[in-house]
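note to self — DONT lose this again. spent like an hour looking for the file last time. sequence + predicted structure for the chain T wanted, 226 res
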Amino acid sequence: MITTDFVPGAPAWIDLGTSDEAAAAEFYGRVLGWDYRPLDSPGNGVFTHDGRTVAAHVPSQSGSWTVHFAASGAEAVTDVRLTDPHGGEFGLWRDLAGLDAVSVPGALTWLELHSPAPSVSAAFYRSLLAWEIEMIPGAPGQFLRPAGTGEGRLFGAIVADTQAFWLPYFEVADVDRIASSAPVLLAPHDLDGVGRIAVLVDPFGARFGVMRSVTVESLPNSGVAG
């Protein structure tokens, strides 16, 4: 799972790029129950849930989510944005505070790397971030965890697709209700051993998923994001 122990290679930060900060704040406030706090630099700010930072906003002409992974000193000197061999955008994150909350309602809980060549993508990220790649019998995709961590630190998977992009999933209490409040790319459905998921798109074209994980117990079925 994703944790706030940001060892090298682990997801540490996520930001949304759009051309309309106010509209982004309104949409995610309505759909995921986030609050928004602008920063001094125009177009930049942070999304919070229950007072804890769960994502950020940056100015961009095209809508997209960018995931940043904790990097060692040899990999980056500051936050760096990169593109993988198939065009998937991601970042390296070093010497900066990471997200305050993950794997709880309203926060980042899972990642999928969509790729037209999953094996090539796996080799690229493994060489850059030393990820350990795991295959799970009966489950599609290649599963990812930071080097030197145990089975409980799986944070995402690489799945086959025609395009390359990172798809974040946010933990919520009621997938169906949230899916009714935004355009749906993948309708709500259950995955054995995972939970109930759906994939949505925001007004700027940024794709994101919502998930009620089987590992999150006793979530209320009320409230925007739990």
